[in-house]
Amino acid sequence: MDVALTSYADALEHLFARVTGGWKLGLDTTFALARAMGDPQDRFPTFHVAGTNGKGSVVATLDVLLRNQGLKVGRYTSPHLVDFRERIVVNGVPVSEGDMMELIARWVPEVERVGATFFEATTGMAFAYFAQVGVDVAVIEVGLGGRLDATNIIRPLVSGVTSIGIDHVQYLGTTAEEIAGEKAGIFKAGVPVVIGERDPAIRALLARLGHAAGSAPVRAIADDSALEDITVDATGTCFSIVTGDRRRPLKTPLVGWHQAANAATAIAMLEAAGPPWRAAADAAEAGLAGVKLPGRFQRAGMLLFDVAHNPDGVHTLCDSLTAVRPASPVHCLFSVLRDKDWPAMMRALAPHVDLFVLTLPPSVPADRAWEIGEPAALAAAHGWPAVVEPDFARALARSQEGAATTLVTGSFHTVGDAMARLPGSLTDG
């Protein structure tokens, strides 16, 4: 090791202390770091997934379907819920604490030299780890946007975009069209594109951007296939993909109408990659049964976790609540980052919730924490039952008092901090 580190916690602290803060959109630094590492991203094939919502579900589905073919599969996602190691996973197993310590010790000097951000550093380390352990393929989730995201140094087998919504407006633009343009920045000449977006105007825009980038072929799923027979219950989502005269019945354990589109996107990406990857799509009927995704309408006794963190995500969550109808009364442990449209999120949730418990997760950076009095005032103005409990542990306990179901939502921080305070692991995937 280039640096002496005595524990995993020490290693993470060492990394955090030596990276630049915040988001820095642009690829120059990531390319510089990758060159110092020997360009590990070029040593294994990849699938690249962008989107406002749904990309985690598509990544999880690709991961499982590829693993079912006997492949050694890397998965890089962000953010994590409880433990940083969730971001870098091989065959469903997070990178070990020892391996993470070695990665940090080995590469932090280069991280400092090039001035990498936290996300740039962790992206480079993920690629280095996947190359080190010899993955057969890796599934890579875009962190923010696409065009200037650190993950965009890869040349994938297929680029996929799930859905487009209004989020991260300070970086990506204020309209769906502007945000679509940023997501489409992952499209590359000669690389197939799969578009999962259902809105006709946005998917047509994405298709035009794909053609303009020289991507080939460009497939918008909703233009050549239909999703029919969709039913949702607590065990998952049944649906059929109808293409021409072929009807293919499928079921994913992920709950929600939107999960039909997410599963179809993953299958289409495997088909677009051609042999030998298409075999994973052909075996989807059996393979989908193994898909897991912590924090997405995930039940644990009376607790229901969902990382919905923008209005589109919350509307999707509410559709699932309507379909599944969890036991009432439903209490909602709720906290949202300051820069999100939390009033719209509360308005959508209010008809489904008997009590809001408004709180402050300890993992939220101070500059992104919401002013808890503002949502309390909104609740009072609308007559929504709500209590304010800034102490997160007390808020988690309060949200379960007198509830038949406790919904934990609003951000990855809210869900992850709650999971971290409960016995056992809820993030195994």
Could you walk me through the main structural features you see in this protein, from its secondary elements to its overall organization?
This protein is α/β, with parallel strands linked by helices. It is built from 17 helices and 17 strands. The strands form three sheets. An eight-stranded mixed beta sheet has the order 4-3-2-5-1-6-7-8, with helices on both faces. Strands 12-13-17-14-15-16 form a six-stranded mixed beta sheet, with helices on both faces. Helix 7 (176-183) runs parallel beside helix 8. Mean pLDDT is 92; it is low at 166-173.
Brief write-up:
This protein is α/β, with parallel strands linked by helices and 429 residues long. The chain has helices spanning 8-18, 28-36, 55-67, 97-114, 118-133, 169-172, 176-183, 200-212, 221-224, 258-273, 278-282, 284-287, 311-324, 342-349, 373-382, 392-400, 412-420; strands spanning 46-50, 73-76, 88-90, 93-94, 137-141, 158-161, 193-195, 218-220, 226-233, 236-243, 246-252, 298-300, 303-306, 330-334, 355-358, 386-388, 405-409. A hairpin with a 2-residue loop joins strand 9 and strand 10 (236-243).
Q: Structural class of the helix and strand makeup?
A: alpha/beta
* Backbone shape: globular
Number of strands: 17
CATH superfamily of the largest domain: Mur-like, catalytic domain
Arithmetic mean of pLDDT: 92
Per CATH, the class of the largest domain reads Alpha Beta
Rounded radius of gyration (Å): 21 Å
Number of domains: 2
The percentage of residues in β strands lies in 15-25%
The CATH topology of the largest domain: UDP-N-acetylmuramoyl-L-alanine:D-glutamate ligase
CATH architecture of the largest domain: 3-Layer(aba) Sandwich
Spans of at least 5 consecutive residues whose pLDDT stays below 50 are: 166-173
Largest sheet: 8 strands, mixed
Helix content: 25-40%
Number of helices: 17
Q: How would you write the strand order of the largest sheet?
A: 4-3-2-5-1-6-7-8
The N- and C-terminal alpha carbons lie at a distance of 30 Å
